[in-house]
């Protein structure tokens, strides 16, 4: 591959070359296999990252409640984008390290799990990422495509949906470049035999209201209890509806969205989330307390650390009067100094 001075790969790295690279990376380690009776039901979602992006925490159990198997392999925070694994580890006992055998067992009993990448899954990706960093090709479209799709291919998915972000807080700032990435990812995923689709979503504002690992878990739990923000539910039902449509579980997107919404509003997704927590190491009492209808997250104490994060008190486009509060910060002791508070208020 030829590289220009700006880090972009030269033209001429066409779909065939990207497919070959992706396939070889996928085959560099373990490729998961599933029982025959799960054929057509193993699905996953990937997001290119954002602020307050807690979609996976609601979507995975909702899909499981609809009969899918969701071996969701997620990542940690990168730069300003939050990581799903970091959020879940704010729940004491939640173990994101699961072997292939353990993943199979959890999928069989619960239907979903959210785990980190195993050492044996696409080891070439870790090597190539270090090389990309050294050669200033981290933002190369073909290499981004191969990195993302190879890991999903190693999950042996039936269907994959991609949430490709654009906007001020996204990797790609404009719609056209995000669309180009989406097309590249969809093409590569389909070539590997996964039914692949993408949704383009704006990342100019926080998803939901909360930012911060434990705060985002709390907002996800509130959403699973039917009390979530509209923008978060919009993404959950759209992405989930697409996956249900691709698996043939529903006839169209509208039906898929209704089915995902019913799983959340009716409490089936919450039950799956509780079962997933327990299967991944969270104490039964803690999981039940967090998922109870009137859980007092403050009194739970250790299971959800409420001390760090930000909570938006207004929505994008809402008129704010001078002097009105628009942001609440949650912090650990010691309290911020008067100088720090003045600097924050002066922004």
Automatic annotation (TrEMBL):
One of its GO terms (molecular function) is 1,4-alpha-oligoglucan phosphorylase activity. Keywords: Glycosyltransferase, Transferase. Coiled coil: none annotated. GO terms for biological process: pyrimidine nucleobase metabolic process; pyrimidine nucleoside metabolic process. It comes from the Eukaryota. InterPro entries: Glycosyl_Trfase_fam3, Nuc_phospho_transferase, PYNP-like_C_sf, Pyrmidine_PPase_CS, Thymidine/pyrmidine_PPase. This is Glycosyl transferase family 3 domain-containing protein. The lineage of its organism: Eukaryota, Metazoa, Chordata, Craniata, Vertebrata. Residues 42-270 form the Glycosyl transferase family domain. PROSITE patterns: THYMID_PHOSPHORYLASE. GO terms for cellular component: cytosol. Gene3D superfamilies: Nucleoside phosphorylase/phosphoribosyltransferase catalytic domain, Pyrimidine nucleoside phosphorylase-like, C-terminal domain.
